[in-house]
UniProtKB/TrEMBL annotation, chain A:
Keywords: Iron, Metal-binding. The keyword Metal-binding applies. GO terms for biological process: protein maturation. The keyword Metal-binding applies. It comes from the Bacteria. This is Hydrogenase maturation factor.
Automatic annotation (TrEMBL), chain B:
Belongs to the HupF/HypC family. InterPro entries: Hydrogenase_HupF/HypC. Gene3D superfamilies: 2.30.30.140. One of its GO terms (biological process) is protein maturation. It comes from Crenobacter caeni. This is HypC/HybG/HupF family hydrogenase formation chaperone.
């Protein structure tokens, strides 16, 4: 596939990795966080940690939208489906995320809830048009990449006066989460491998303040293995030179300004929440979006009077420490024992972009004794 | 679910839609988030919506930098 195959050349990957070994100082450690689950997946799939010198540590960040969704919000979705008897349209990854009492949307479906997997929010709109006698709620999750499609759906619903459609909005924002990780001080990081597709939408500018305020370089990186390796090289050079600026390795799709059209539909329909609970990170100020008052009639939280409940994560689950870069999946006592992709106890095991699932699937390439 | 992929526009369809080619498979997607899409454009597709455009010249430039880096140059 064009724009893909040429960025997967194994020989070039090994040569770049060797050069990284030459520029990395042997007398120090480099702790680089890949924020995005897409990178976690690529790093595990292509065994990139194995190519890099041992003193370059890649730390999985919280950028897997399914993994950071708190239990209380999944409980809310389950309530919509079971108690309010709506047709709940959701992205497939959310079906197996464990909620309170071992419940999942999948189990709710077995118990009679009408939960439909959709590929796109456009499919949720179609469900509402086809079922005028039913309430259809779209369970909206994701970072800045899935947000513009949700925003477009709100506009379409309003234009069509689609009275039986609403959105349960759980969209979260990348830069505030990065800021929160660095502000906590309990996560030791030297730089960020920045998200590629999120940055396609928001541009590289929003990271500039984060990089400057916390003196950490950010390199926006493509998702292919060569992209990740080149970005690591760019970060090592920045760190060695004492620079904390924003680099853009994914210049084939990311500009400083981002996609203005996408930003405009989001600004028209959604507003910043004061705070939002993230699984593993706790309450993060100004880190998520809610539906704007102008679209209040399409807000499922208002329509069904959903209140937010705080529910602690599973006792054994170390997702929180893993999302903060303090532990690796192997350090969780139940990893690959009680917790597997078929029986996930924590959210990091559910999605293929989750740190635990990525380690589980590709562990033989990446396991290292840290 | 964050995985997105490059697709090529093969036909523009009224209603801000387009037919795209995904590695040989044809599909209808939304291009409502793209400024002035054209047949032949490469777009990044995510959950049924194109969210950005790919620039072939920049891709070439990046590959050239990678080869330079592999040969011992700057990143
Ligand atoms: S292995 Fe399972 S229980 Fe342990 S941290 Fe990962 S998701 Fe949580």
């Amino acid at each position: 596939m064009k724009f893909v195959d040429e960025f997967r050349d194994g020989k070039l990957a090994r040569e770049i990795a060797a050069q990284i070994g030459a520029i990395a100082r042997p007398d120090r450690e480099y702790r680089l966080m890949e924020f995005c689950g897409g990178h976690t997946h690529a790093i595990a799939r292509y065994g990139l940690t194995g190519l890099l010198p041992a003193n370059i540590r890649l730390i999985h960040g919280p950028g897997c939208p399914v993994c950071v969704l708190p239990i209380g919000r999944i409980d809310g979705a389950i309530r919509l489906a079971l108690e309010h008897q709506v047709i709940l349209a959701c992205y497939g990854d959310t079906l197996r995320v464990p909620a309170s009492g071992g419940m999942t949307l999948f189990k709710a479906r077995a118990a009679g809830a009408d939960v439909r997997m959709v590929y796109s929010v456009a499919d949720a709109l179609a469900l509402a048009r086809d079922n005028p006698a039913r309430e259809v709620v779209f369970f909206a999750i994701g970072f800045e990449t899935t947000t513009p499609p949700t925003a477009l759906a709100l506009k379409a619903a309003k234009a069509e006066q689609l009275g039986n459609f609403s959105v349960y909005c759980n969209h979260v924002l990348t830069p505030p989460a990065m800021r929160h990780l660095l502000a906590g001080g309990d996560v030791q990081l030297d730089g960020f491998i920045g998200p590629s597709h999120v940055s396609t939408v928001i541009g590289s500018a929003p990271y500039e303040a984060v990089a400057r305020d916390y003196a950490k370089p950010v390199v926006i990186a493509g998702f292919e293995p060569l992209d990740v390796l080149q970005s690591v090289a760019m970060l090592i050079e920045a760190i060695n030179a004492g620079r904390s600026d924003v680099g853009n390795q994914f210049s084939r799709a990311v500009s400083r300004e981002g996609n203005a059209r996408a930003q405009a539909v989001v600004a028209d329909t959604l507003v910043l929440r004061e705070r939002f609970d993230w699984r593993g990170l706790g309450a993060v100020p100004a880190s998520a979006l809610a539906i704007s008052p102008a679209y209040a009639e399409y807000d499922a939280e208002r329509r069904f009077g959903l209140t937010d409940t705080r529910v602690p994560d599973h006792k054994a689950c170390e997702c929180g420490a893993i999302l903060r870069g303090q532990k690796t999946p192997e350090q969780c006592k139940v990893f690959a024992i009680a917790c597997t992709p078929d029986t996930p106890l924590g959210a990091c095991m559910v999605s293929s972009e989750g740190a635990c699932a990525a380690h589980y699937h590709y562990g033989r390439f990446t396991r290292n004794p840290t | 679910m964050c995985l997105a992929m490059p697709v090529r526009v093969t036909e523009l369809i009224p209603g801000e839609l387009a037919r795209v080619d995904i590695d040989g498979v044809s599909r209808e997607v939304s291009v409502a988030l793209i400024d002035a899409p054209e047949v032949g454009d490469y777009l990044i597709l995510h959950v049924g919506y194109a969210i950005g455009r790919l620039d072939a010249a920049e891709a070439e430039r990046t590959l050239a930098l990678m080869r330079e880096l592999a040969a011992g140059g700057e990143a």
